[in-house]
Each structure stands twice: as structure tokens, then as C-alpha cells.
What does this fold into?
Amino acid sequence: MSGFLAGLCVAVLPLLAAGFWLGRRTARPPGPGDLGTPVEHATFQTLHTASLAAPPLRAGLTEETARKSARRLRSLLGTDALCLTDDMRVLAWDGVGAHHRTEIMDRLAGPLDTGRGEAFELTCRTPDCPVRWAVVAPLTVDDRVHGALVACAPRESAVLARAAAEVARWVSVQLELADLDRSRTRLIEAEIRALRAQISPHFVFNSLAVIASFVRTDPERARELLLEFAEFTRYSFRRHGTFTTLADELHAIEQYLSLARARFGDRLAVTLQIAPEVLPVALPFLCLQPLVENAVKHGLEGRAGTCHIRITAQDAGAEALVVIEDDGVGMDPELLRRILAGEDSPSGGIGLSNADDRLRQVYGDDHGLVIETAPGAGMKITVRLPKYQPGVHSAGRLGQLPRD
It folds into this structure.
């Protein structure tokens, strides 16, 4: 939390300084309907403008994001022109004097190499061109220069140079956050690859063996199981999207359970109770299926009787409440703690710890797995999924309601 507060101060304080400078430039006597001082108005306007410029920058520095944010950034500085560059070209130009693009890029070699700001006079043969000076402020992420913010004005100004440096520092913070977002996405993708790698070769072998056993005795049943196996593997190895819908995840679980029932027969009894209104809820891809696989494995392990698995998904106001429960052998709570902490990883443990980690990364620590278990007492896993979370959107199709 202290790191977050420090980052917030770094992001906000430069904007307040820029707001104060802008307020001094735009100060006017308060009107009858005005509230607050001109500086307070200018500070509010600065923060509001910055909030509009931030979302594009959180996607990184590209032509599209630069174009979307350049006008807001120019408004922050109150300059005649502003451009954003990477280390090779101008990404976006807002305002007058766009014919200075080539000259500015020719002069950026020094600032981009040293990471230090610079101001220089522009040469222009256009008599009515209003921009004569350029202030360069490098954009850095992790001490590496990614590009520059260049503000153009009619005359040299030390105040503008300082304000441009502060705004460039704020832009750099947004780019750092974008870099962190990409790192988190790469981590989640790596975890999904780990889950895919964990799809047990034994499960694949056993599923194909079961299908083969039906080829002569019940060809239609073999065909149905083969289709279920194909759809399940296609879903598990899909390459688009970090998130899916609860409907699609439950549909994949149904396909997995069809294969498990074909193998274990009457030894596996499954009850599903799904509220239709929670089916569109988005959640991390392959987040629930490993939990069900864990329930099947530990529900049948070391016992000759029937394993009962119950899966429910209920509407709980702002959340969807998913519960996966089995009456199997259970687990020692201390061993479970070590698995979730990454200190131990017996067979099946990767799925539990992976799902718990990804839920916490996406929704926060309050939304990790809640697991109730004891040796011989089965296991109950509760998952709370917020119906809305910024950045959590599924691009997949809406699946079918699992059958009882």
C-alpha cells in the first residue's frame, strides 16, 4: 500500500504544479456564479483534463494512444502546439506548425540519448508561423528513454520548460503503469500455459481409452464422447482472450464431467444448480475447471464407494457465488496452506494455487479461494466473482446452460 501511495503522489503532484501554473495564466475575477478561486478552478480543470488523457496512455506509447492524448496534454500546457514521439518518429502532432516535424526529430538525438530536457529555437521560413521555440522533455520508463514530449511556443519560456518536464514525468508514470499491466498480462498468460501443460496426460490417455472401449459396443456413445473430448480440448487450448464467461467455463466443465462419467460410471454422481442470471459474468479463463478436476480426483481417490460432487452458481447481489463441493478424502489444512503458499505442490496442487493466485491478481486478495476441508471430510471451495471489474471482459461466445 505504501508503494501505491508513493506512486500516486508521483503522478498527482506534477499535475497540481502544472495546474497552479495554468491557473496563474488563466486567472480572472470570479463571476457571480463562480465557486472557489481561479487557481482552484484551474487545478480542477487540470486534474480533469489529465484524467481524460490517462486512459489512452495506459495502453502504451503508440500512434493511436499518442493521437488520443496529445490534445489533452496540449490543453494542460496551454501551448500552441505539442507532439509526442518515440525514438524514431513523431507519433502525433496537435496544434499549428506541423511542418516542423522533421526539424524536431533531427534535434531529438541528444535528449533521447541523454534523457535530459532541452529547449531550442526553431528555424522557419513561414512568416506567420506562431511557433518559434520547442521544449523537449524525454519520456522514460525504468530509466530507459521511450520518446519525448515536445511543446512548441512563440518564445522561450523557463516556466513552460518546467511545466513540460512535469507533464512528461506524469506521462512517464502512465507508461510505467502500462508496462506493469503488460507484465501482469504476460504473467497470467504464463500461468494459463502452465495450466494447459498440467492437463494430465493420464486424463487424455484414459479419455481416449474409454472412447475406444465404446467403439464396438456402442458406436454412437463413442462418437458423442469423442465430440465432447474435442470440444473440451479446443476450449482448453484456445488462444484468444484472458477471460471467459461463466457459461463457457461451466460448459467446458460439463464436457470434462461427461468424459469422467464415462470412465467411472455410477461411482461419480454430479449435481449442478446454476442460476441463469449469472451465466454472463466474466472470470479468468480456466479458473474453475481445475477445481472440478481436483474434486473428481480427490473424491474418488482411495475409496470404493460413490463420489458426490455438487456445483452451484448463485446470484449474490454484486457478485456471483460459485461453490464446488465433494465428499471425498479431504485434505490436511496445513498441507493445503502450504500448497496455496507455493511451498508444496503435490499432484493437483498446481490447479488450486494457480486459480487462487489469478483470482487475487484480478479481483484483489479478498477474492481468493475459500476452502473448507479436513482429512476424511471432503472439500468445499467457494469462489466469489464480482459481476463487474474494470478490465475484466470476455470476448468469447455465451455458452449453454449445463444439463443436470
